[in-house]
Amino acid sequence: MTTPLTDAQLVARCRAGDQTAWRELVERFSRYVYAISVQGFRLPEHDADDVFQEVFTRAYTHLDRLRDDTALRPWIAQLTRNLCLDRLRDSSRTQPVSDEELESGAIDEVLATIDDALTVHEELAQLGEPCSELLDRFFARDESYKTIGEELDLPPGTIASRLSRCLAKLRQRLEGRNTASNTSGGR
Amino acid sequence: MSAHSWNEERLAELLALLKPPPAGWVEAAAQLPALRAVMDDLVARAERDAAFRAALVADLEATLAREGIEPTSRVLNELRSRLETD
Question: CA-to-CA distance for B67 and A171, rounded, in angstroms?
Answer without folding.
Answer: 48
